Structures are given as C-alpha cells and as structure tokens.
Predict the structure.
Amino acid sequence: MKLDRKKFLNPYLIHSLKTGIAIVLGLVLTRWLSFAQGQWVVITIIVVMSAQIHVGNVLEKGYLRFIGTVCGCLYAIFIIKFLGQNLWIIAVGLFLAGVISSAFSTRREDLSYAGTMAGATIAIIILGDDPTVSFALERFMEISLGILIATLVSQFLFPIHAKTQLLQAQIKTLVQLKKFYKKNVMRQEPVVSALDYHSADEHIVQLLLKQRELAKGSKRELLGIHLDFQRVAKVLFLERQMLRAMTFMLLAQDKLQEHNEMKETSERLENFHQQVLEELDFISDLIEQKKLKKDSCRASVIAKLGIEEGSQNGLYDNAFVFNAEVLVDSLQALRQLYTFRT
C-alpha cells in the first residue's frame, strides 16, 4: 500500500516558504503604511504561522490572538483614559489583568492563548514608553494586519488543509495496524523485546491522537473537501477497537502457546490472518478513492474463527476468538464507512 506522495510532497517546506513570504509582505506593508511599531506585524505573522502548518490551525491561532488583543487593548485604554498613570493604579490594573488572564488561560483550554495574549497586550501598552490611547490603537491595528496577512497567505497560497492530512493519517494508521498485526499476532517478524512491542503500540496511539488534532483543525476550515465529523469520530473509535483486539489476541495467543495449544500453522488460522491483511489494504485503498470503484461494494470475505475442539485452555481460546471477532466486526464497520461515504 503506497501513499500518494505527489500530492503531499514536502508540506513542511511549502509551509516554511509561505511563512517567509508572509513576513516579507508584512514588512513591505508596514513600511508603506508608515507604522510606528511595525515590528508587531512581523512578530504576529511569525507567532500565528510558524508552528501552525494547517489552514484550520492558523485560523484558530489568528482568531484567538485577535480576541486577546481586542480585550487587552480595551482594558488598557480604560485604565489610561479613566484611571490615569499613578503607580498604584497601574499596579492594581496589572494585578487584576494577571488574575483574569491567568484564570482564562488555565481553566479554559480553548481560550488559553487568548487569555495569555490579553495579559501580554495590557502589560505592553501600560508599561510602554508612551502609554496613550493612540499607542493602544496602533498596537491593535498592527496585530490585526499581521493576523490578516497570516490567514490570507495560509488560506490562498498553496493551502495545506488539515482535512487532506487527516485522510493521510488514517491511511498511515491502517498501514501501522497491518505491520503491528503481522509482527505481533502473526509473528512473521521477530519481536526483539517487550520494548519493541510497546514502541509499535505507542506509535499507533500517537497516530490516533494526531487524527483527533487534525479533526479539530479541519472543523475550522471553510474551504476544501467536505468531511463528516461524526464519521471521523466513528473511524477513530473503530481504529482504537482494532488495536485493542489485536493486543488481546496477542496476550491470549501467548498463553495458549505456553501450553502448546496454539496451532499457528493451521490452515484456518493462516487463512484468517491473510484475510485481515487484505481487508486492511482494501480499506486503505477506499480512503484514497475520490470515486467508488466497481469492486468497492463487494462483500467482506473475512470468515470468523471458530473454537478448536478439545482445547484444555478454553478461557484463552475463547479470548482469542472473541477478540478476533471484534477485529472482524471493526474492519467491516470501517469498510462500510468509506464505501458509502458521500
């Protein structure tokens, strides 16, 4: 199963070049508009774009920075306009600003950056060399321009959509699940140590977490391909279910092998393993399809395992078969989600 690398070649390099272009554009505009503190335009572009490769994440970071800047500027203007520049007034004002911004930053994860930005904006304006209303407004204009440039460049200059990356992450997850199954359940490759197994398990878990983060970023993207986010949640659940089933099959298999009860060479078990691998490949192909192919709606050919008669370790035998059935059900449900997607 090979990924379509042509479409997703060097997204990090592309994003880095976009960030550089946005910075130069911001510098040119600040000189053209004669901003007194034009460095804040460039700083904002760097902060909003640098660590946010996807359009949705840039939009979110820009939105939160804008909200934080607006709140911070309004608070600072209130102190400057109505309370004056007395040292104790400034101290009390900064104390309250610190309490409020910290409360938002620590208690509301979704507003964490906005709260931090509000507190920083208040401190920069009030403690600046020229703490005036005009200085606060200039600060607001510079930050707003930086946000606008960052979001427009991210959205319209070779956009890197989280939605597209999400589909690729789903394919990578299925590829890793296949490798995990071959190495740990089928034992086609030698397992070096328990650490080797845990490393493979952790890698799949990290891919699942990445999918969740990409799904969050995708929700903020107005343009690009359409995603059904309920379906994305179901996909994540089924992938986790598959990993759990494989893990418990492995544990039950180890116990059965201790008592020489596991017949790895049995024709039925080998056939089951092969069908699982083929189904994982088939679902990966479905994800990449823009349109359904003729064989996309064919019925699953995976046959559920039965329990070997005469087993002396029925508990582990049943555990292996039960989790094998969970794996089959998850594969069939996952295939249906992609087969009948719109």
Q: What stands out?
A: DSSP finds eleven helices and no strands in the chain. The radius of gyration is 28 Å.
